[in-house]
Amino acid sequence: MYIDKTKVSKLINELIEYNNMKESSKTFYMQRINIFFDEFMNTEQYKNTRLDAITYDIVNRFLSERFNGKESEKMNYYNALKSFFHFAYVTNECIDVMTQVDKPIIQRKEHKYLCDEDIEKVKDYIFSEDKINIRLIFGLLIFSGLSRKYINSITNSSFIYNRGVYDLRLWEDKENMEVILPLKMELQLLIYEYLRTNPVEKGLSKLSCYGENEISTVVSNKIKEITGRKYKLTDLGNTFIKMSLKKGNYIWEVGKLTLQSTETIEKHLDENESLYIRQKAILNSF
C-alpha cells in the first residue's frame, strides 16, 4: 500500500466536505484521485514516496503514460488531481505540485450551425401540416435552444398560460429548482394547437414519445428530409445560441434561457467576435 494512503484518504474526505460536493462530484474526484495513489503511486518506484515529496514530474509521468492520446480523460484526471493537491497545499500537507504540471490541450470541437436558408426551411416546416408533436419539438429546439433532456421532460402541464402568452415550466437539475422560461411568439400558436389536442383536463401527456437517444435520430432524419443536409439535434440548439448572441454579449442571460452554463455558451463566441460585441456594449452603454 502507498505509504501515505491513510493521510490521502483523510484529505479526500476533507476536500469533499469542504466543497460540499454532490454525489456525482464525489465519485468523479474519489475515483480518479484514488487511482493515482492506489495504482500509480503504489508501484515499487513510488510507494515509499511521501505525499510532501511528490513532484510535478511524477504527476506528469502518470498523465502522459496512462492517457497518451486520450486528452479528454487526461483532463479529467488533471482537474481531479489539481483540486486534491491544491487542497493538500493550503492545508500544509505538500508542496504546490500542480503549478508545473502540463495542462492537457483539448482540441475544441467545432460547432455546427444551420445556414439562413435552412433556418427558413425549418420555420416553414414548423407551420406545416405534419403532426403537431414533432413540429412543436422542432419549434422548441430552434426557438429555445433547450437540450434533448429538457425537451423530453416536457408534458402538456409544462406550459403555463400567463398574461395572454404561454411560458414553459421545467425542473432545473443543477440548481435543483423549478424555473419558468419565456417563449418566443412563434411558438404560441403551436402550443395552443398542441394543448387543444392534448388538454391537461384529460390527463398528463408527454410531448415526446421517444427516448433521449431515439429523439436524436428522429430529429436528424427529419431535418435531412426538410433541408436536404445532414444536421444533428444539437445543431438546432447551437443555432439558437449563435443567433441570440448576435444581439449582444448576453452570455449569462442566454445560459439561463437555455439552462446551460456560461462556459458552454461562451464556446459559441470566437475571440474576435466576443471582443467586438463587448466593445459595442461599452460604446452603447452611455
Range of helix content: 40-55%
What is the average per-residue confidence, as pLDDT, rounded to a whole number? 85
Strand order of the largest sheet: 1-2-3
Predict the CATH topology of the largest domain. Answer: hpI Integrase, Chain A
| C-alpha Rg (nearest Å) | 24 Å
CATH arch. level architecture of the largest domain: Orthogonal Bundle
Structural class: mainly alpha
What is the β-strand count?
A: 3
CATH domain class name of the largest domain: Mainly Alpha
What's the helix count?
13
CATH superfamily descriptor of the largest domain: Intergrase catalytic core
Q: Can you tell me the overall shape?
A: elongated
Strand content: 5-15%
> Largest sheet, described in full?
3 strands, antiparallel
Distance between the termini: 65 Å
Write the layout of secondary structure elements.
Layout: H1 5-18, H2 23-40, H3 56-66, H4 71-90, H5 116-126, H6 132-144, H7 148-151, E1 159-162, E2 165-172, E3 177-181, H8 188-197, H9 212-227, H10 233-245, H11 251-258, H12 262-266, H13 271-283
Antiparallel strand pairs: 1-2, 2-3
Helix pairs in contact: 1-2, 2-4, 5-6, 6-8, 6-10
InterPro entries: CB, DNA_brk_join_enz
GO molecular function: DNA binding
Keywords: DNA-binding
